[in-house]
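Holo prediction. Input below; ligand is adenosine-5'-triphosphate.
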Amino acid sequence: MSDDDVILAVDTVHATYSHAITALHGVSFELRRGQILALLGANGAGKTTTLKAVSNLLPAERGQVSAGTVRYDGGDVSRRKPADLVRAGLVQVLEGRHCFKSLTVEENLIAGGIGRSGRRAEINADLERIYGYFPRLGEKRRTLSGLTSGGEQQMTAIGRALMSRPRLLVLDEPSMGLSPLIVQDIFQTLRKLNRETGLSILVAEQNSAVALRYADHATVLENGVSVLSGAAAELRQREDIRAFYLGQSTTGQQASPAAKPAHLHAVA
Ligand SMILES: Nc1ncnc2c1ncn2[C@@H]1O[C@H](COP(=O)(O)OP(=O)(O)OP(=O)(O)O)[C@@H](O)[C@H]1O
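Structure of the complex:
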């Protein structure tokens, strides 16, 4: 794969909080332009920390990348402020669908466009484009976000990120606390955006079943280390891998297998 094909390269990243707690000790993966990569793993495996390393948001939480590199579009992200990364097209939707609850859905979306240059007509065109992808937001555009459902708030948070016209969209557990139908709706829309606009997407998910259905590739984290990377379609079919790393059997039940399966691709 040539470097030009890779929009994001995470290489042997180690990260700590308060110089004391090691959250990551060897996370590596590459995301190719125009693809969706799912970052999978159990609670506390290091997914959120990895995403914050990608967007250079760790220093804001007394965290730091202590070794390894993250390169976005070939450049080291640790040298750029998070706001510069947003302007360069790397936009993150944080865990927990942060919306301004006392603003309307549309005002929340417009807030996402602040800071970028753009005339009102251009902003209106972007709003319409987002309502095209998320019709429910169009219907609720005048409703206060605090009065919309969890799914609509997640859509608003994604829509707000889209107002910055990202080239790489980073999402932290978009499925959290939402019903299966809404989760499917959101992932279908992400897939559509990816296919129609070439948007690259990095999505951290505990819900590996849905993430593997919509992603091109997946990387599995275990205790702060990337232990496995492979094509999502391949991972989906490997019941041993799903059971061992993701706690799932093909029936979706929790499973506790005895033996560690052979790796698809060893990483790091
Ligand atoms: N701000 C912080 N300060 C100190 N330790 C932290 C902080 N944030 C996370 N950690 C620790 O880093 C490790 C990785 O956590 P992280 O949130 O990245 O995992 P995760 O896979 O995203 O889990 P979850 O699905 O629960 O969000 C955990 O041991 C966690 O306790």
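Residues 252-258 have pLDDT under 50 and may be disordered. That is the main takeaway for now.
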